[in-house]
TrEMBL record, chain A:
Organism domain of life: Bacteria
The organism of origin for this protein: Streptomyces spectabilis
The protein's name: Tellurium resistance protein
Source species taxonomy: Bacteria, Bacillati, Actinomycetota, Actinomycetes, Kitasatosporales
InterPro entries: vWFA_dom_sf
Region feature Disordered, mapped onto this chain: 193-219
TrEMBL record, chain B:
Residues of the PPM-type phosphatase domain: 30-268
Residue ranges, annotated region (Disordered): 117-144
Domain of life assignment: Bacteria
Pfam families, A to Z: PP2C_2
Sequence ranges of Low complexity compositional bias: 120-133
Organism: Streptomyces spectabilis
Protein name: PPM-type phosphatase domain-containing protein
InterPro entries: PPM-type-like_dom_sf (IPR036457), PPM-type_phosphatase-like_dom (IPR001932)
Amino acid sequence: MASRPVHFIWLLDCSGSMSVNGKIGQLNFAIREAIPEMQQAADSNPAASLLVRAISFASGASWHVSEPTPVSSFSWEDVHTYGGTDMGAAFKLAAGALQTPPMPQRALPPVLALASDGQPTDDWRAGLRAIDGTPWGKRAVRVAVAIGDDADKSMLKEFLANPELEPLQAKNPRQLAAAIRWMSTAVVKDASTPKVEDAKPATPLGPPLTKVEGEADIW
Amino acid sequence: MTAEQGTDRGADVRWALLTGGVKGVGKKYSQDRWAARATADGRAVVLTVADGHGSAAHFRSDLGARWAVEEFTACAEAFAHEAVRVGADAAGWPELRAEARLLPQAVGHRWHRRARFHDSSAPARGASPAQRAAAHRRARGRGTPDLAAYGSTLLGAVLTEHTLMCWQLGDGDIVLVDDGGVPHTPLSSGPDMGDETDSLCEPEPWRKTRTHWQPITGGPPPAVLLSTDGLSKSFADHQGFLDFATGVRERAAGQGVAAVQGQLGDWLARAAKYSGDDTTLVGAFGARYDTSDATGGHEPHE
């Protein structure tokens, strides 16, 4: 007997614009800070084994953490900015990982967590079709955070594949940290929730990213 | 839920029934329901399990699972009487099969009627305003009542000396283990991916109900095991689950069903630790009755 794996994949925008106003630094910080809570969320569900990895995309895309790593031993090494916003390439990379194999048939739905601050510079629709074309891709729990006002929110909404959901919007470091924390915890719990077939994806609504008094939108 | 343990005598076959269920780890209460009973003067058995979906969106699924078991049992008992009446007369089988195909529709209608009645009587119980609003949006979109709160799977079987009929809506497993110890899963739809399932809460759920018919023309009936998905999902692979089913049948044959019943709770509890889900198993073991054995007995013999 064995518990079932939940594969969690970060899809992180490392385009040049992410270096403006410290976005990439705050993203690295937020992910690193969220790891303990992610570990706690995993501990509270012993029937699931949470495995984490990450893709970075800019000019092309590559695995930043290629091995599905048990969250208990997961640590974060910073991503860095390096070019355009080839989100489609990242989607295709993720789609390859969502094929069966290498994904096992006996698993809980994977989580795809996307963070981006800009407009894709490649054919992202082809990449999204590749994800939707895999058995696990179309079942994945998807969440997205738009960092700043320049993010392509309509595109991110299409990625979510649920007209009832909106991408989270982070306009300052605190909101980004809250969004990343939520993506790391609530969504993991949701991934092991039963779904009625043919129902819309039941990704939970995000946290209210309200503004704190005196807090400025810097992105 | 109902369960009868021990043996029941028919004209030529004795049945021994096995039942057990455990709550999922960390759950307040189980949303699985089940029934296993002899009927038609002990000449047939009815088995059923139902798995209420159990998440926040299905906050009344314990009721849905209970109604599923009750309505299936009511319909299946009537069917079982007819199956016993037809017996080994193959000329009557086509009509019996036709009746079996209609059974899911009868169960579905009865279940939907109860759910709609309950929902109209107590629309707000347990639902948050957000859940109610979401339910109303969904109902408006498709023009039928949204019964997702009551969602449940349903597996059932009727077993007589001469026929076996199985029905399955949604996830879970029906395993037949023949006299040689070989397991069969006649209604398997391939590996489950994630936790998606068909459900009674969908419109016209009978359209998604799978049905299996099997005449029993020689030898003892197969052991029939019905389980909710919490059991199969606790195994590292499907073969491990099939091996478990074979082991249950072998132990029942070797040690007696009562001995297996005594251990079943521990086995299911261990499984639930891995799947995290409510875990339920019911089974029936039939053995030809040796009419020269005047003393009878409490366990089937093979």
